[in-house]
From TrEMBL:
Record-linked InterPro entries: Terpenoid_cyclase/PrenylTrfase
The name this protein goes by in its record: Squalene cyclase C-terminal domain-containing protein
Source lineage: Bacteria, Pseudomonadati, Planctomycetota, Planctomycetia, Isosphaerales
Signal peptide (residue range): 1-19
Species of provenance: Aquisphaera giovannonii
Record's keyword terms, sorted: Signal
Gene3D superfamilies: 1.50.10.20
Region Disordered: start-end pairs: 21-62
SUPFAM superfamilies in the cross-refs: Terpenoid cyclases/Protein prenyltransferases
Comp. bias regions, Pro residues: 44-61
């Protein structure tokens, strides 16, 4: 590995390592959040079994509506007085390294996801379609959205990286765009507000250009040079999240910079393997059969990466590819589920980290929405069954104990996913034009 960074968490990991036995070939100089720091289990080749799942059981609409309302109620209760969601509280003495600026970015990104989720739930409730869900507290939801929007208007322009090493702010810029696009469609008659939102989207483009890796794409660590232009290696799932947000913004007429988009697409394509699993990051290109880079390790990433490349015109991501990876996610959901709620990143099989669980399912619902109408319900119902089965007693969803951000971001991802699984047109941004490939 080219990084000379001295791992900051070896002492914290020692207890876990002792319990699990000797490590198998750890990569030196990596952070605990990096799968290259974990051992790669040997796996013998096996015949590929049939992956297509059987038909899903019918789901009573009232059950889906009740689940959505419980999730919404959790977010209403969990919102902070300043309109945000999430905080650096509830530490577990084994945390992803983060500074003050990192926590600001986490809180803004979490708030953006919550605003997007509540906005889409409201749009689904207001739609005059058979699949609509009646919200139990629409006025409370409206006020929560307004408070969240005020927080984003105030804080999103202030987001920066914490220091030259920690570049978590890319998540706030990406999901900030996601929320801003939903905000843009919420009050279409307010022209000045829309102008302000469009300007803020363009500001996020500027930030993502500023914090783009020198080689293109986006990562969130620079363990090498610590330069003004990050020397980070791009991570496939970050590239995918940014490109998906770019597509949303382009759909409302706020097109991202062509060069920035093209470089992101090129870097994402560079991580793709022939079976449409994706390398965790470009730095692992010489370790394609490492556990995290195999299909079981790519289950959550492949959904996001396939979606991002498909909407940006990659003809290799066909309906058949989308279906195969949706089949994999459903049939082999256990590979992701065994990592869910584990406190150490990448400690599970195939070096899966818990925080890919609801991330992956959200982008899976977007992939299902790209399929022909006749094929969507099959996958939407399967994904709905999975999501309903994991809702907590308090109405939340969470997949990784992450300070005090995990319940709101997990709940937001789950609500966005359920909204897109309703048997009705998904409440996506109004499309003014279809973005073409940046190539």
């Amino acid at each position: 590995m080219r990084y000379g960074f001295r791992t900051l968490v070896l002492a914290a990991l020692a207890t876990s390592a002792a319990a699990q036995g000797p490590a198998k070939g750890p990569a030196e100089g990596r952070h605990a959040d990096d799968p290259a720091a974990a051992g790669t289990p040997a796996a013998a080749p096996a015949p590929k079994p049939g992956l297509h799942p059987g038909p899903p059981a019918p789901i009573p609409p009232a059950e889906i509506a009740a689940s959505i309302n419980r999730g919404v109620a959790f977010l209403l209760k969990d919102q902070r007085p300043d309109g945000s969601w999430g905080s650096p509280e509830r530490t577990k003495e084994l945390n992803i390294i983060a500074g003050v600026g990192s926590h600001h970015a986490f809180r803004v990104a979490t708030t953006a996801l919550c605003v997007a989720a509540l906005t889409e739930a409201t749009q689904a409730a207001e739609a005059r379609t058979p699949g609509r869900v009646e919200l139990a507290r629409p006025e409370d939801v409206r006020r929560a959205i307004e408070r969240g929007e005020d927080f984003l208007f105030r804080e999103l322009p202030r987001v920066r990286r914490h220091d030259a090493m920690l570049i978590y702010n890319v998540w706030a810029h990406a999901y900030g765009i996601t929320a801003l696009v939903r905000m843009h469609g919420r009050l279409p008659g307010e022209g000045a507000r829309r102008d302000r939102i469009e300007a803020l989207i363009r500001e996020q483009y500027d930030r993502l250009a500023r914090y783009e890796s020198a080689e293109g794409g986006w990562g969130y660590y620079d363990f090498a040079a610590g330069t003004q232009r990050p020397n980070s290696d791009s991570a496939s799932f970050v590239d995918a999240a940014v490109l998906a947000a770019f597509h949303d913004a382009a759909a409302i007429g706020v097109a991202p910079p062509e060069k920035l988009t093209r470089r992101g697409v090129e870097n994402l394509v560079a991580t793709r393997k022939p079976d449409f699993s994706y390398l965790y990051g470009i730095y692992l290109r010489y370790r394609p059969m490492m556990g995290v880079n195999r299909p079981g390790g790519s289950l959550g990433r492949s959904q996001a990466c396939n979606y991002a490349l498909r909407v940006w015109g990659d003809e290799k991501v066909t309906d058949a590819v989308l279906k195969e990876w949706l089949d994999r996610l459903i049939a082999r959901n256990g590979w992701l589920d065994m990592g869910r709620k584990r406190p150490i990143p990448h400690e599970s099989h195939f070096q899966v980290a818990g925080y890919f669980y609801y991330f992956g399912h959200y982008y899976a619902t977007l992939c299902a929405g790209l399929l022909p109408t006749a094929d969507r319900a099959f996958y939407q119902d399967h994904l709905t069954h999975i999501l309903l089965s994991h809702q907590e007693r308090d109405g939340s969803w969470w997949d990784y104990p992450f300070y005090n951000y995990h319940q709101p971001y997990g709940t937001a991802f789950a609500l966005l996913s359920l909204t897109h699984c309703l048997h009705a047109p998904a409440p996506m941004p109004a499309t003014t034009r279809q973005p073409s490939s940046p190539r």
